[in-house]
Amino acid sequence: MCGGEDLDALGESMLNRRKMLAVGGAAGAALLVSYGWRSSLMAAPPGPETHDHTSGPVVLSSPPFALFAARMPVVPELAPVARTSTSDLYHLPVVPRNIEILPGLPTPVLTFGGSFPGPTIRARAGRRVVVAVENQAASPANVHLHGGHVAPEHDGHPLDTIAPAATRGYFYPNTQQGATLWYHDHSHHTEAEHVYKGLHGVYIIDDPAEVGLNLPSGEYDVPISLRDALFDTSGNLVFSGNPRDRDVILANGVPVPHFPVAARKYRLRLVNAATERSFTLSLGGGDEMIQIASDGGLLPAPVARTEVAISSGERVEVVVDFARYPVGSQVVLYDATGPVLRFDVTHTAADRSRVPATLRELPVLPAATVTRDVVLAFDRTTGSALGVVNGKVFDPHRVDFQVRRGTTEVWNVHNADVEPAVPHNFHLHLVQFSVLSRNGGPPGPDDLGRKDTVMLAPGETVQVKAHFGTEHLGRYLYHCHFLKHSSLGMMATMEIVA
What we know:
With about 500 residues, the protein is mostly beta strands. It contains three helices and 33 strands. A hairpin with a 2-residue loop joins β13 (about 250) and β14 (about 255).
């Protein structure tokens, strides 16, 4: 239990923007959290970058390493430093580290909590979380809970950053259903590099309403954060240049590793934490995976898939039954470009889990009363690439859409970058949406369920439907989630009004 101020009062004080709050630490030491709220939402942003997002030095390849040599770790879960009957408090520092990613080479990274990727936060639906983020790095940073239904002051607005040596709190009510979310830096013009350097982690909302489904759990419920990287000969992460040069795939921070499994069912929570990459994932031999969830939680029913595609920021949950393979088998998870991870079936284990025919009914959204168009593109008329939404570069002082709380809207999202052809994807803060159509036809197999991020190939149009029945009012973002694109201005603001 918490010594000092009760976390219920702590949460309220944060929402009321008190300057200081104190809670008891896990070892009994007081943790002092400064919550000096700054009016950075009204500050002028730095000027947009003027170089093309594909420019920079060309680096052909990272130093060689042996495939499947290292074991994929299960990223540790962050332990609360204090608890009450309704709330949990976490301490999450932003810490520079040197770690070994490629064998024998130290790599400077940015971390949450000292680990790469950051520690998993496992919350509970209906139970509140407060995260005290202490910035021990040399540059401003912040945290966006991607997929979270949170108040605007806790959404990690790009201009609302934590200065070096400062600490602030984020309040997450977890009023949504169970889902695999993730958290990452969202500081404007530096979000892409910060996430690439390591500022990201998985955030899981466990839902008591789903316990009776008896899906694989405990050690058989494994989050897997996927991303790409490029290293120079000294082991440094190379951020500049073309993202297509990033030739090393990392699973939970380890290059193309192996992972021992039992001959039984596993729930794999796949998170695309790359800044500008899509994965098309399949098992060797075309074996089936059973998709049970997407960005916003469980599907109505399981769907057998031989491959799943996830773009930057998307999540998908699959169940793989390794009981169909003899002990000693090696099962490789492939991307379209090559191997990602090898599962080594090393032993048998009891398995009382199941994948029921019915998972969780999706809410029926009310009829839409507003239709909007969103066009993502690069403006190259000045000779350099500026990201634009509906022809406009991001301006934090401008409200692009005003959305009335309690209404339902249809958005037609279009990727206008056909020549030259550039893929984009679309992320909506605050709420999830349903995909109604893709290019005028039915949704694709990767559009299932409650989504908050969706892929758009050059020239594609995706129609989505969202209900803004939220308790929160204020300004939120929508943008391309290829983070270099958003850092170049491909981002806009909606305001939820009463």
